[in-house]
Amino acid sequence: MIEVKNVVKKYKKIKALDDISFNIKEGKITCILGINGVGKSTTLKAIAGLIRVDKGEILIDNEKLSSKTYNKLAFVPDIDSYFPQLTIKESFEFMKEFYVNWDDEKAYEMLEIFNLSDDRLISSLSKGNKARVKIILGFAQNAKYTLLDEPFSGIDIFKREEFIGVMAKYMNDEQSIVITTHEIAEIEMIVDDVIVIDNGKIAFEFNAEETRENEGKSIIDKMREVYRGE
């Protein structure tokens, strides 16, 4: 389990994260939602250890972020590409050197799903194909926790559906996926838990299936309650 405890992150006088606390459970797909600039990406970067928080702590399976937790976390950022100067194959070889759980079989299976060849230079790829390579590089790490920051950016609706199928295929009961996305409707039926952030604070949390069954509301319906007061 990932535990985020009373975390504060400031950029000068602005609190990007304002005393937030929540847990990411094993074997679940958790979606962190909110409008632009509310702290979603900052939250993922803090969990991944890419930024230092000002207060609070983050625990990965009861351990503080350290070299011991390195291979438990895979972070897929919202940037064009990791290795623009490399071919896809070379990027796979690079990752294999640094991640003990790297899975070549999974990487090439996903490459086939996305209809890409490993001799392509990453810098020559379209935005959508660069996004596909990022996703492969994240999932093939075989990390216990995979953090995806806007993973569907630049990917057409049909490939998004394929990717969602890949997520379901490769997850096991001990793995977790954490997603930030604006494509709420497309992840509606695969998400377990939802965390809504507003102005750096946790607005509320809910289980998507329970909310549909007990209240007859979708994730988007619950989002409206926060941002429109409906």
From TrEMBL:
Residues 2-224 form the ABC transporter domain. Gene3D superfamilies: P-loop containing nucleotide triphosphate hydrolases (3.40.50.300). SUPFAM superfamilies: P-loop containing nucleoside triphosphate hydrolases. The keyword Kinase does not apply. The keyword Ribosomal protein does not apply. Keywords: ATP-binding, Nucleotide-binding, Transport. GO terms for molecular function: ATP binding. It comes from the Bacteria. It comes from Romboutsia sedimentorum. PROSITE patterns: ABC_TRANSPORTER_1, ABC_TRANSPORTER_2. This is ABC transporter ATP-binding protein.
